Amino acid sequence: MKLRASLMMATALTVISPLAASAEIKFNAVPFPITDAAKRAIVTTNAVTIDGKSADLAYHTLARSGDIIGGVTFSQLTDQNGDPIVGESEYGSVDADFTSLLSIGEKLFSITHFESRPAAMYLSEVAQDDAGNLTYTSTKPIDFSAVGGLWVPCAGSVTPWMTHLGSEEYPADAREHFEANALSDIDDYNYAMAAYFGVNPTETIQDASGAETLKMTLEEFRSVYNPYQYGYPVEVTVTEDGTATPAKHYAMGRVAVELANVMPDQKTAYISDDGTNVGLFRFVADTAADLSSGQLYAAKWTQTSDTGAGQANISWIDLGHADNATIQTAIDAKTGFADIFDTADINEDGTCPEGFLGSNAEARAECLAVKPGMEMIASRLETRRYASMLGATTEFRKMEGNVYNPENNSLYLAMSEVSKAMTDGAEGDLGGRNDVRLTQNNCGAVYELPLDENYVATAMNGVLAGSPITYPDTSPYSGNNCAIGGIANPDNITYIPGRATLLIGEDTGSGHQNDAAWAMDTQTGALTRIMTTPYGSELTSLDWYEDVNGHGYLMAVVQHPYGESDEDKAVSPDDTRAYVGYVGPFPTAN
After folding, report:
1. CA separation (Å) from 434 to 174, 399, 421, 483?
2. Which residues contact 448 (CB under 8 A, 6 or more apart)?
3. What are the tens digits of pLDDT across the range 504-563?
């Protein structure tokens, strides 16, 4: 089968020549939803024109949370023994996220993430008819017990060698875990992972006064949960007989991985890091199509303009070389925060005592010193802290998806917000260098990073930003805090090669009441709204597939409808189930 062949076969730098006037794609726009009915629906563009030829489009649902496919409940969360998690919703996880299409031999497969704690990935076999319509014919959960389970997978990509490259977002603060004197000293966001190991994280007991506390103790939680086991790119290799084998790439570093995206050289990968006080990372594998060992770098922003979303020169801090096996050994040995660092209190003037380096990663000011001989371990288990200590910029806020543009040999990068430490003098600048000094924009922005012949980013330039606004109470757009004609909190992005078109999906709450997807003409900046999703949902897994047996697809997943806002508007629990599907089929250039 032929899948995104123009990218799959690339092994060296190929920059496509400037686009011909006829190389265009135009979508029919969809309106901003203002009626209750429109706000409850998945509304997608109904037609596209490619090089003057029109084709009808629709959204096709492949599966919803809780669907029974081939006798298996799609999205059911399971423990390390493969048994259903006790107390889970009958629908399983509603947090469907990145969904890939993988052409393996003569078969087509799809892998779907579920962004939960514990998490899951489901492998589904896909049938394709002559008209290009896709159907899931079977599904099954992928076994992650050999790598300690799966934690909060978010965005993902398909590698040039046709594997699924996923992620693990928001890993726990290992210092907090180490210093805790009671379970309540640890963020309760982390508790749910204990269920993967057979420990009930929600069961309570009553004391003599009748007050309820969790039955799970700090010691019990620590015995099953190792924070350094999570926070890595996760690659899944699928064979034609349906065998799926996962691997966590510890050599690529531990951050809140939003997306690891491999460049056409099959060695360089850009890793975006979600959250507050985060960084941008670049990994260069030792061997093409093998992410198990290599060199890791962290970006340093040297600002050149504060206009709009800003501009900067980008340089790279070398974090050193590592391989999966060495880091896995350290994890298995239960290496802890105190084995890696000595700590000291920060001085009143914001400096660190002699022998210690400042870090503003993890959204707190710290003075740290790596213990002798632990530099490699620090670079991979505490990647963000170590990068900050060495001078990299860890001031970004809500860094999201990234995608390669072969025409420009550049990378697009979404920033869901320009806020907190990205502004001048913010609290998150303490312990760092105040590298990023921009005007706050809670509607977010998209940046373009030009790359050199070795796929090294040299600059970072804002090319699109949302516009904060307050609509009057009498306006049909009242309550939307970002202008409805532009983006709000960009998240997943994808690019249509040869068409100068960037597709942008939103993850927004009050910015836009209903999340949208946009098509941006990268030559003019013009935006066309091409999709909106129901109340309270997030539009995830926006990913373009150029050619799958003569048909194109835009994958699009609707995560947790009525789940982040407008929860009261769900008529029944059935409304809250996630949708995994695609827009299409699209005609191909051939």
Report:
1. 25, 17, 8, 29
2. 405, 408, 410, 411, 412, 413, 460, 461, 463
3. 999 998 999 999 999 999 999 999 999 999 999 999 999 999 999 999 999 999 999 999
